[in-house]
Design goal:
Layout lengths: L1 H5 L5 H7 L7 E5 L14 H15 L4 E7 L3 E4 L5 E6 L7 H9 L8 E3 L13 E5 L10 H17 L3 E3 L3 H10 L2 H7 E3 L25 E4 L9 H13 L5 E5 L5 H11 L5 E4 L6 H6 L4
Parallel strand pairs: 1-2, 1-5, 2-4, 5-6, 6-7, 7-8, 9-10, 10-11
Antiparallel strand pairs: 3-4
Length: 293
Amino acid sequence: VIRLIFTKELPRAYMLKRKNRSNSGVYILTQSYLTSDGGREQYSGLQRYVRELVRLVKERGLRCVVLQKAIADFQTTSPDGAQVIGLKARNDAWGDPMFNYRAHQLIPADSPVIYCLVELIYPHVRERSIALQHGVWWDGQFASWKLATIRALNRRALRKSRGIVCVDTNYINWCLDVLGMQETVFQKCHYVPNFVNPHEFSSHPDDGAPRPDGLMTVLFPRRCEEKRGAGVFIRSAIQLWKQGRKFRAVFCGWGSMQEEISDISRQSGYSKFVEVLDVPFDEMRSVYSQADI
């Protein structure tokens, strides 16, 4: 990610112009990092990714500014030391262009920018920029105008950005199949899979040891949302419990289905087997260590 922004070969005239540029920092545009009021951290995959980007930028001795959508404008400092600016904008796709426009009023023209979602790359795109692609969840049975808009946004991202970091190869295949642009895709799409710190999340001999109540623990460590599979998991668990296969199901991640999962488990009579958590990133190690699956 950092290499794409800072070390790509550029024309000599451009490099000479850069000598006179001030270090205004790296700007990260994202849907959300802190809560929409700026009050606290949010804990999910995208937020974890942004957190690691902030760490990488700061390790290079650079200032880091995160711009996110918010229910009202705010400015604060995150626990990891990044300046966070919240800009009032709708939380859905209709709010993306206005958020992009307002954010670029604050970003110096020569500053490097990381767009944490391809959808945030319209209408403005900085020359020194990359985009991140976390999947193709939007590739569904939509109206023709929506599919055309999605494809136009992704073509724009490929043309205008310095590169797109892809967490899986599915997006690259989708671009080749749907967008064409073969040469551009091969040049600008960079496959960097999601990652884990093996020192922090290492295996220990006591992992998977029998629990005091004798029940196995199955962990669901992601947002509690239908599109993330939370509904499939709880419904599948209930079927297994009805068959006499008892285990503990732990949902760890905020989301719109947290209360619904508790309600479903209570109505089915299996609430004693369900736990819904929401813990900070730094506590995930202990949650994993207590799970068998």
